[in-house]
């Protein structure tokens, strides 16, 4: 098994390294999903507005965190009744949340649903190789199709030394665009620089407006070249957020999503291809066939053929006439855009995508590539440990940083209270983050919580309760910390904070599930208030924010291991989600065994923010730490040290 390297001799060499790793990850994913069968499932049947049957049921493996489920996943329901075995396939349209632990599965038409049967079902994952096939196909295109990418991008991706190219294009007189906030100096520098380069990296630290910057870049590219820009991200949520921002600039945006996700509502459903098809003017025959299908649930074979012909033509027209096409990275391999060439490609959250995933949108004729992300935050999720060890968990963005392409860093943060941004800025971003918000703008009017230090809405609350293995046997929980988190949540709610202003973060699924359960059991307020508080992992909160964050660290043991918390990037994400206030609950003696956590605890101690005691009588903790002269995390979050960023004045 080859491991990923920095430089490749040719596209064939590149393919020979990455293709086996894609296969490794695919096989691991298949085995994991095919092992997730659950028996003796009880189903409640319903019929949706589109006349399709929807099965609602509980999957204990999902609610206990042993099984990951996403909207759009395909499941197979089976049952035996009256001597006959029935099976049907559907797409997940609802996943368990804090309000309901049921899964909603929309069945495909023509599956002959036994809606009078409710007991004795089994549920299987239907594994699809589509995403992995598209990654392999992207590598093959790079090898076999000369025009798949431009020469400068080809050389940069392979790590072959080449001269920097400055593209001669007419720059806009004004970089800020209508419909979006005015750009700051570092954003203007990023936009101006990116427009003139064939390949660019933009580093967007937390709250620095990378989505606004990206939307601005896309607007200018669409206007300069008058051809569709391809905008991608590894997650559907990130694609939706960017599509909405780009739409605000007045461009014609088409959101292309997998057919398996067409029944799932999103904030930008009105931009989706299937929605725009439905409301096209002048397509009377298509409209009538759509209406007939809605009313009857399915069409005759003749009508179905005619419907598909008309729909395919309209899809082609809409896509070719769009200013911007937005989809996930893997979605860029959709057959509906396979024949289109995209001169300009922007990939948001590129540091959360594997390199082959990033290549799917790149090999459609890319001449100008912009990768946006932050290699100081969490990277790609690779399930197969062997593939991860071989380097599949390194993003293309990170490898290009190693090769000497310096990211353009956005430098003004608009999310956090200035006191909250101080430690992350100094430790993860060399002190470069400036505050675009004042203390007054991040002090919540009427919220009368007494912070240990009036001008610093943050503290570390010492909690010495022991960790234990969770019920699933695969995770951890800490009852003392859960009780303290509930006390904090109740206090915040009593002081007038809305549930949607509070986020509870914990690195362990066992603790997440226990906190949800404990707040329902021990919380003294209306149970629904606690249900509306989001409790999630650090990874689930990446790219998001809340007014107040409560962080439960969980680990508290005699052998002093801290597991997940050992990753500096995970700590960076956890510390940078809050706008108005952050409270960390944990055992400092255990956490201080890790150097970065010790730096954080020393910071809190020196600022009188390390406290102990009951919530109503907190006092400064007497716990002492040995101060060391460790530099500001010179590994700069694992990959950051491998290449410095350009600053806002353009110094190289």
TrEMBL record:
Enumerate the UniProt keywords alphabetically: ATP-binding, Cytoplasm, Helicase, Hydrolase, Metal-binding, Nucleotide-binding, Zinc, Zinc-finger
Q: Matching InterPro entries, A to Z?
A: AAA+_ATPase (IPR003593), DNA2/NAM7-like (IPR045055), DNA2/NAM7-like_C (IPR041679), DNA2/NAM7_AAA_11 (IPR041677), P-loop_NTPase (IPR027417), SF1_C_Upf1 (IPR047187), UPF1_1B_dom (IPR040812)
Asked if the Swiss-Prot or TrEMBL record annotates the protein with the keyword Metal-binding, the reply is yes
Pfam family of this protein, just one?
AAA_11
Protein's GO biological process: nuclear-transcribed mRNA catabolic process, nonsense-mediated decay
Q: What is its EC number?
A: 3.6.4.12
Q: Which SUPFAM superfamilies match?
A: P-loop containing nucleoside triphosphate hydrolases (SSF52540)
AAA+ ATPase domain mapped to chain residues:
196-407
Show the GO MF annotations: ATP binding; DNA helicase activity; hydrolase activity; RNA helicase activity; zinc ion binding
Q: Where in the cell is it found?
A: Cytoplasm
Q: Give the highest taxon in the source lineage.
A: Eukaryota
* Transmembrane segment boundaries: none
Q: Does the keyword Repeat apply?
A: no
Q: GO CC annotations?
A: cytoplasm
Family (UniProt): Belongs to the DNA2/NAM7 helicase family.
Q: Under which name does UniProt file this protein?
A: DNA helicase
Q: Which organism is it from?
A: Trichuris trichiura (Whipworm)
